[in-house]
Amino acid sequence: MWEILRGVAEAWWHILNDSAFYVLLGIAIAGLLKVALNANTVLNQLGRGRFSSVVKAAALGVPLPL
């Protein structure tokens, strides 16, 4: 029983270590975008509810998880 729990904890720790750099990188990029982009500009481009706004949001959102 303890061996299974230890194996799960070790696997969790390795996954956390492997992903930590990318999580911190994502937070840093999000912070830079928050500082660099004006909220009104984003609202004007993506907040109207038109078809073009949806296409722009999808085009910007697709590569983000990659």
Give a description of the structure.
There is one protein chain. The chain has 66 residues and is mostly helical. The chain has a domain at 21-66. It has three helices and no strands. It has helices at 2-36, 39-46, 51-61. The longest helix has 35 residues, at 2-36. The model has no long low-confidence stretch (mean pLDDT 85).
Distance between the termini: 37 Å
Tell me the β content: under 5%
Backbone shape: elongated
Which regions have little confidence, pLDDT < 50, spanning 5+ residues? none
Distinct helical segment count: 3
Major sheet summary line: none
Give the SSE string. Answer: HHH
The total beta strand count reads: 0
Helix content: over 70%
The SS-based structural class is mainly alpha
**Rg, Å, rounded:** 19 Å
Helix-strand layout with pairing:
Elements: H1 2-36, H2 39-46, H3 51-61
Short summary of the structure?
This protein has 66 residues and is mainly α. It has a domain at 21-66. 82% of the residues lie in helices and 0% in strands.
Characteristic key phrases:
0% strand; 66 residues
